Amino acid sequence: MPRSNAQENESPLQLEQKRKIALLQQVRVLREGLMLSRGKVEAGDPGFEYHWVNTREERQNYYQAMGWELVNNDSDPTVKTKWRKPDGTHVRGDVILYRIPKETFEAMALYNVLDGQDRTGAIEDSFFAKLESSGVPGYRPRV
Length: 143
Fold this sequence. Notes:
This protein has one domain (13-132). Helix content is 51%, strand content 15%. The protein contains four helices and six strands, in the order H-H-E-E-H-E-E-E-E-H.
């Protein structure tokens, strides 16, 4: 397949990173589709992302510390699920519905992708440094 002008200005490493990010986005869409079929959330505020969180206290504390808020009558009375309780929360087995602003959610997702790339690069650097210090020849392909 011929490369476009924009691709000609990018290094093979940049192209490979873009390819991997595109794959991650595909996986994310598939996973979200699976979750929607299991616990569909209807209506709600389009400016928020909704997720089911385990009801264990430590999991709820973890999500709340990241900025997620419990969905109830006060926070979002427009949300509709099959599992709405009289107090306005949505509990399905051992999970409860939380929400976060979409902008925050997307920023966290981007951070996770970039952090993963940084960690991968650091692991690779460490590996080749150990090879070099051991006197073992190593070949780092230019990707």
